[in-house]
Design goal:
The structure is a single chain. The chain is mainly α. It has one domain. 75% of the residues lie in helices and 0% in strands. It is built from 3 helices and no strands. It has helices spanning 2-12, 22-50, 64-95. Helix 2 (22-50) runs antiparallel to helix 3 (64-95). The longest helix has 32 residues, at 64-95. It starts with a helix and ends with a helix.
Length: 96
């Protein structure tokens, strides 16, 4: 999701003449990934509530620890990808 954020930023956001701080891009990328992660967890919850009741045993939500673990993994992955993309962009800008 963080790579999709940077793809959209690089291809669809118009270039502006002022430099936007890297910390702002990092927080936007984290917010985008966390928004998608929370939406996915809601989707799993609704799937369980509507289709996979207790009697089926095919539950998507395995509890609070599973949900929070997924969200922490989303955040750590987004941090790693966002920082690497920002470093790559900064190197590319200094070489150009």
């Amino acid at each position: 999701m963080a790579q999709i954020f940077f793809f959209l930023k690089n291809h669809y956001v118009p270039r502006i003449h002022t430099e936007i701080p890297w910390l702002l891009y990092l927080s936007f990328a984290l917010g985008f990934v966390m928004l998608v992660g929370v939406a996915w967890e809601w989707f799993e919850y609704i799937l369980d509530a509507v289709f996979f009741t207790e009697r089926f045993g095919l539950r998507q939500q395995l509890g609070l620890a599973d949900t929070l673990g997924d969200l922490v993994a989303d955040t750590v992955g987004a941090l790693f990808v966002a920082i690497s993309m920002l470093v790559r962009e900064r190197k590319h800008d200094t070489l150009s």
